Amino acid sequence: MTDLRSSLGAARLAAEQRRHRHHWDVRPTPAMMEDGDWRFSCRCGVYQRPEATHKGRSSSRLGKDTERRIERQYGPQKVGEYNDAIDLIGRTWKWQSKATRGPLPRWVAKVDDWAAIEAHAWITHPMDHMEPLRRDLRPLLIRSWVRVGVRPVDIIIVRVSDWAEEHGCPVPMGEYMAMTGTHFLDCHGRDEA
Question: Alpha carbon of 42 to those of 26, 29, 37: distances in Å?
Fold first, then answer.
């Protein structure tokens, strides 16, 4: 197997500045004691918001759990820990996963096997961010709707031209197509590297 960092644009990763992470002080500062505000603060002056911290941890856990499930179910290797636009890498596709606990949209219920889908920003932005990385692979976006006690619903979105080139099938109308995870596995199989 090749070195994953070189596969994910290590030059871009090495040149990136490290993001500021808040470090919450254990003891309140004198200014906090004067104001009567006992929330933790960072040296940069930001106060900790417990509800935002909980939401961030919960979202992070959902994303990591979803990436592991996609790796088991569809075959690509999880590389999301490298903080790149690519979350998983297979032999043909570079994957980005988006998971939510929100309600299932009506358009998802209408997708039996596959359907043409309009190019919305929630599709084009992830695809555009993956494009400059690993040009030997084609971009793929997988949206997952997750609920406790219910099997997750996966919709895989690819460019119509990429799917047609890969599978030699006639091109449906539109720029993007959405398909169920079952249809993807039936047509393409597992995308193991």
Answer: 10, 10, 14
**Helical residues (DSSP H) of the chain, grouped into ranges:** 4-7, 10-15, 30-35, 50-74, 106-109, 121-130, 160-167, 181-188
Of 74, 95, 91, the closest CA to residue 152 belongs to 74
pLDDT tens, residue by residue, 90-115: 999 999 999 999 999 999 988 988 98
At 122-160, the pLDDT tens digits run 999 999 999 998 889 999 999 999 988 889 999 999 999
Residue 16 CB coordination number (10 Å): 10
Burial class (CB in 10 A: 0-12, 13-18, 19+), 100: middle
